[in-house]
Amino acid sequence: MRLCVPDETIRFVDGLCGPQAQNLQEECGDFIVRRSDGAFAYQLAVVVDDIAMGVTQVVRGRDLLDSTPRQLYLYWLLGGQPPTYYHVPLLLAPDGRRLSKRERDLDMGALRARYGAEEILGRLAFLTGLRETATPVEARALAETFSWSRVRRDNLYLPEGLFKS
Length: 165
Fold this sequence. Notes:
Blueprint: E1 2-3, E2 9-14, E3 18-23, H1 24-27, E4 31-32, H2 42-53, E5 57-61, H3 68-78, E6 84-88, E7 91-92, H4 108-114, H5 117-128, H6 139-145, E8 156-157
């Protein structure tokens, strides 16, 4: 089942990426809301869930930025109050490709086996611009100093030695 979309431009301001606009009909087209196996599609499911849970802020990867106008249209149709959105940069391999299990890239399981939570958090906070050094940090301490203005806007490249002893 597809949702027929109007020839209309959906506009919103992303907390990190700034002003966004997408004409649903031209750039996306009618989109699936229920799959052929009967399951509800992601776009509809996430909006219904967010409305039911009272979600007011969504933080997710930049690769999902272009799905936001579809979700905003669904919020409007369902009479829900849309959240604010922040689309954070992706962490990429040193050669610029997305990290993937298929390529045996570094994953959270491998990181947890080798490093403590504070070490991982400190190194990732450094990479994103939230800390000046890659030293270990507790989540509570990082949250106390968190500011969206410090988060880097561009995709991040995993430096070769960031997770080496």
